[in-house]
Amino acid sequence: MAKKKVLVTGATGLLGRQVVRAFDEAGWDVIGTGFSRANPPRILKLDITNQEDVEKVLDDVKPAIIIHCAAEKSPDRCASDPDGTKALNVAASQLLAEQTAARNIVLVYISTDYVFDGTPGGAPYETDAETSPPNFYGETKRDGEIAVIKASDRAVVLRVPLLFGSGDNSESAVNVLIDTIWNKSGKEKVDMDHWAIRYPTNTEDVARVLKDIAEKYTSEDPTKLPRILQFSSEDRCTKYEICERLAQALGLPMPHIVANSTVDPNPSVKRPYDCHLSTKALKDLGINVTTMDFEAWW
Question: Tell me: the pLDDT tens digits for 79-101?
Fold first, then answer.
């Protein structure tokens, strides 16, 4: 029996690497795409904003499903390059949806909890809750969701929260806190957000869930399955509390890190207070939503 084939965009990124690994370990035929860090033949170089290039890769690879991880994920970089962000997060996603629809390929679009405004008292958010992004990054991901669902009846959205996992510390807003705790720059004081609630989730867990989604949506009629899914850890904490937990796990002091409980401490890019995602839709599909222990992983 031939292996099912999956194409992973953004396969060189924090999440994409784990997705490639999870599918590979599950016996799938896995092809990844990247751009600046592409490494053929396993990781193909692909400009996902270029229609001709996208069509060629889809016709050559002929995947049963695409896991679309490629995106501009930093709210700060999104705000500084709005045109480039819209091209990647919205237009390229729509292009993929249109081309996969024409070939009967399932597309899984990775989205974010930032599609919700996260006002106090609003969480947890169900998959059908009204979206209201608090910043430009969230707007582009919300617009990407709308675009792929409209373009393909085989497109499904998976919203995820703040991610951490194996890789360079700079790749994750969680991992990079390790550098802050080490304080190699010797700062006397570092203000740390102690207001917004986060739910740090490991990329290995997300990759496992994506593999389970792929099994489900390629073995059943995807047009009759939910179009929007959500996955999140239940680990509720602020960034300051994440620092405390990391410091304890690593056996490091953090006297230089000061809790900042000011509402919206970075007004240039508004962050939500609490965007906790309900995982009910995944549970209804029979998919395991258990996540690994935060401290134990480190």
Answer: 889 999 999 999 999 999 999 99
